[in-house]
Amino acid sequence: MSDYIINISEDFSRNPGARYISDGKYSGEAFLNDILEPTFLKAKSENVKLRILLDNVIGYPASFVSGSFGVLSLKYGSEIVLNHIVLESELNPARVEKIIYEIQNPTSK
Amino acid sequence: MKKYFTSQSFKEHVVRRSNYEMKRRRPQYKKKKAFKKQLLRLNKDIIYKHQGVKEYYKEIIEAPHEFSFIENTENILRYLNKAHKKLKNDIGVFFDLQNIKSVTSDSVAVLLAHIDDKEFTGTSTVEGNYPKDKSLQKYFVNSGLHNFVKTSVNGDTGLNVLHKESHIKVKPELAHHACLNLLNHCNVSFDDLEPIYNIIIECMQNTNNHASLNLECKYRWWLLSFFDDDDCSTSYTFLDLGVGIFDSLVVKDFINRNLHKFGIVSNEKLASLLLKGQIQSRIEKDNNIRGKGIKQILKYSKLELFESFFLVSNNIHINLKSEHITLLSENFSGTLYYWKIKKIS
Asked: CA B199, B204, B207: angle at the middle one, nearest 5?
């Protein structure tokens, strides 16, 4: 079985938006529902990795990250998520750290 | 055909028409009709006089010479409040800007947001002029002001963005477009755009959810990205005329939260709590995962990329770089973020 790959700039958008679908285009909720969660569940059931390519995107607003990766972590637990997801960014490794931190600390309290 | 003309219904129709024509030719009918016509005209005049055309009078209000909302906040607010009082009393206002000595782009956005707001202007007329000094005119002309007000001067906006959003949605493409000034004029690389893009998105998101105290948000936001060729810098102004941060925030700490409810905690204290990250979203949905946007803005504001970074809301002015809080004597009903980025050499 080969790993699954999500290239955010190609599969979703170069301009991620805010938290909810009701906020506007390219929201974290839309990314979670349409791409991230279905692919994550496939990777989890097949016990393979899900590689997420973060480059060629202008930025990752906090509410987008929280509304997608944060909610996924709340639903399935940070350990399971981090066991199956591999985040990759050649141009900006700080993005990887930021998303991993969000997965480990999805709540603001 | 023959059958139709001889049918009973046709005969009745012809008789009705003939009676009507006979009636129209009577002098009594003509007299009545003329009277009705006159009455209608008279009524129209009454309605016209009643609805409207009041005597037009405008008051000329001279703008502060330092026309900068960020640097001369209290005087600009006093100026706007003075205009608002006149407008509320159905007196037209003429914003006289011809003698101003300095200007920053944020004040253009603030002035425009106010004169475009029906709650500010009411039904009164608003007019204004440009500064005499040609070097100051560019802030008004090149910002794209002509797209929102009637003016004979159309400037070259270039990559500047002046956007009013009424549907209160987060617009990622617009945020991307607003970053282009930096790529083209300030030598900022695509990777370095991330903080600016993220800040704009978080500002949009916060306006969407917090600008109005009721959830059916009715306030609109404005975004201005302006390249100043004099000092090779790009400045950003994001503002909404909502309720303001300090009138809407919820404090995390139990004691301060209750003191705030009873109005015992000042906005100055709340501002320091905001800087410490001790505030939470008042939106109940997903409350435990919210409140990260403002923290991200505060964190980014410390980056060297930003020459200056300010937040003005209610009666509070914060220099986010130095964390210096100033209590204002005038109230600003809304929230304004302003930041400036110099060309990277």
From this structure: 125
